[in-house]
Amino acid sequence: MVERTASAGANGKAVTAERPDDIRNVVLVGHSGSGKTTLVEALAVATGAVPRAGRVEDGTCVSDYDDIEQRQHRSVQLSVVPMGWDGTKVNLLDTPGYQDFVGELRAGLRAADAALFVLSAAAGVEGVSGTTLALWEECASVGMPRAIVLTHLDTARADFEEMTETCGQILGGGRAESILPLHLPVYGAKGADGHRPVTGLIDLLTQHVYDYSAGAHTETPASDEQLEQLEQARNRLIEGIIAESEDETLMERYIGGEEIDLATLVPDLEKAVARGSFHPVLIAAPPPEGAKQGLGTVEILDLITRGFPTPAEHPVSALCGGKATPLVCDPKAPLAAEVIRTASDPYVGRMSLVRVFSGTLRADDTVHVWGHRIGAEAVDHDSDERIGAVSIPFGKQQRPLGQGIAGDIVCVTKLSHAETGDTLSAKDSPLLIEPWSMPDPLLPVAVNAHSKADEDKLSIGLSRLVAEDPTVRLEQNPHTHQLVLWCLGEAHRDVALERLRSRFGVNVDVIEHRVALRETFASTASGKGRHVKQSGGHGQYAICEIEVAPLPGGSGIEFVDKVVGGVVPRQFIPSVEKGVRAQAARGVAAGYPLIDVRITLYDGKAHSVDSSDAAFQMAGGLALREAASAARMNLLEPIAEVRVIVADEYVGPILVDLSGRRGRVLGTEPVTLGRTEIRAEVPELELSRYAVDLRSLAHGAASFTRSYTRHEPMPAQLADTIRDKTKSAG
Q1: Are 29 and 99 in contact (CB under 8 A)?
Q2: Beta strands 179-181 and 114-120, pairing class
């Protein structure tokens, strides 16, 4: 039996560390359903952080404890689970696997120093491509160390050898030898269904068998038959470790037939993992009911504590006086920390999850909050705030801590103005850590308050929602006068609306999202506005005649005065202009604003007593409406330039889909190995659900951006349909 020093987290005490070198921050990454949360719970049980796998009611549920997560049966937010192993504090950051919640994932990547990619062996290639590859490349770009954990090996579709080979081919980037397994699975006897469960592991380096069949880690030497099975895989692993070694003589010695001892191989393996140049593949499965150790949990914890880097080995810089300054991961250094996520608690108020990069964050300290909102328009924060309590998050619980040292992740209360991405620093030496990038939310959701009571609480609820989730963007559209929440997808939308209802007490109705259409004249026309009324006392008298001519797109509205002979007195010409512009803003045919026309006032009549500013404003509007009734009108729709980055195998379906959306493809070009950028112009009417449809078309292996370019006439048949719909609604 292999003994390890586990934490006392199950007793309700916070797991603490005295030095940054005794901390490991690891984020779990993987597609939805890969088993990340199950793995976190298995590791928590193995370390003694909880007595058994997750139950919300007795406090053993350390992840997916939120009410929304319980109802939806999936992770929707980042959670931190601290545990102790062999004298080291391990902060596991469990992230959602569904693409709609990538903002929570990116927050986890920022807080971590290494990543475990959890992949389902039953999913095969589908579990490695798409979003997983994009995240792997993102981690590679910043040099983040990574390891792979294969789950679901006990299912009928799972194939260990095929899955490890797939990982090497897809994630290796041409270096499949950098992704190799450290163990081979040991299969038990066939059951009645013909399936053979995985009962243990064979360590390729030590050539020992780790048996988990009884729910505990038991070590025995490998049999002769097992040694034969592992020889080829062991040789590949040794060659892969030697290739990453800094000792150039090792390969010559190995090729020459010399046996390289474990005292040399293991340290070289750990250094290569910490550098991010070698990515071991491990195996995991949850423990049986009542057992303490699930398959592979000891090996995963050993890799985390011995192979993954300490916070001091993950350099971060901050801006000070406009210059980038490396931060020192030292509890005695000046404070530099970052808000990773923000949440609201009905009893405690706003709670901030904070990664401390330098210095020590103490309860009741006054800190400087500096930064700007990420994922939305810039909102600068630059103020001093006094923090409240400092604690360690553990499921729904907050375990008192008092202070958070450099390298640790803690919870802070009473930061009323700090938002996700803001930097916390000493008030006398403010610093700014550049926030991480967030995807642009591209699914519009128009909402109205459900009742008068909801309307009174709506603005506060929405502002708190946006503060908690920087991937939600709030827009008060000035053209359509709609309140629009921009989300990442339908699941993200559902969670945002549920949070509004359950957490902030605001019920909203989702209404049809309107696109900002426009009208214009397709031909020149004239109109006469006559506003003459006499009903006793002071009357109203104004007549004006105008000509309206179309202009090129983007010209706006031009008003030209060609009145001669004073038929319209000079003081009333601005009144005519005001009247036609007001009518243009209201629309003249289908109720959409009029643009890109020249309106020429060339004649009219006035009365010495009854003419007035108001009368000529009315006459100007009537003249414009009459001209519109005599002209051929165009309904204009906004056109967006769309840039889609997609895996090469999906380029064809994406091009076909864009054509079906009345899009015009401008060109394609390769951007990285295996990925292509497609540029196209697409009517915005066709893009309302594109964020959802693109994900389905490309199986998650695509992203897109959009930007407004211009308005242009829509097809006559579609324009007639919209006009009829507008008339029936009005």
Answers
A1: no
A2: unpaired
